[in-house]
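This is your field. Pick holes in the following sequence-structure pair:
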Amino acid sequence: MKLSYRNLFLALGIVAVLLMVRNLDVTWDEAAVAARRAGMWLPACLLLWLFIYLVNAWAWSLIIGAGQQESVQRNIGFWRIFKYTVSGYALNYVTPAGVLGGEPYRILELRPYLGTERAVSCVLLNSMMHIFSHFCFWAFCIALFLLYHSSSLTWTTGTLLALVMVFVALGIYAFVCAYRRGVAEKSLGWLARVPWVGGHLGRWMCAHQETLRNIDAQITALRSQSPRVFFATLFLEFFARLLSCMELQFILFVFTDRVLLADCVMMQGFTSLLANIVFFIPMQVGVREAGMALFANFSLLNGGYGVLTSLIVRIREIVWITIGMCLLKAGNPQAVPVTHHSNAEVL
């Protein structure tokens, strides 16, 4: 990636972090009190997310390595993929709509190694698998909810749960179709119908139609030609979601030892569902706090636990976002090997 692009991503990330820290309804004294109260569990949460990011990087490395020559894999290396993973998620955290920062950054970093088409398809596949694992995780949370709290359902909560089930089922179906038929050309085709920008985008699609078809071919090839890689990647991403639930367990140990891991899984699942529904808010400021407090009350925990838990999670996020911003400038090669790929290359 060009130095100017990397500096631009770094500047945007720093500005976004400063704005979000300033706009959070938490004083520095409150944050310090929460960190002291968390004690050893705050470092445990930071270390836990190191393992989570390692699992995410492992999943992405399987996608990148599928069908690639060993020389290409050696040039990139696992730790470089880990660096792009952490920095990409940090940029996603601080930008509206989630993918306005991290995904373009990853594409630009991978392009010298893989070529434009392969870099785009690898990043799209990684993002698709990450989101697909969320839908699978939400389906798992619904099953747990019915297992543990079905007797507490009211007409209102039952209706909301039914709507969530329909949403999750439609999401899973959409991703299954996307893995079979591709997503790049159709998604841009829908955007081409949007007024004002549609005309320019339509002309660009006509000029790059072959490229878009090659990207879609690489996306569909993962499921059809490399099913082991597909399911291994999905398992790793789902496993990362389960690992993230241990963070809530760690933090709640500060307040009580009577909380079940299943409650932590459900709290994490439904809170992340609510946060992703309002994806346009950077770091989902205010949304996560409300979701955690609401489910904490429903699961017979003290509602204050949810608010304090969310505050400690915010501290962990800011630390890892800062690490991701620092990695933008660390460990960058002086000269990146440029690889040549044919337009017809697939997995």
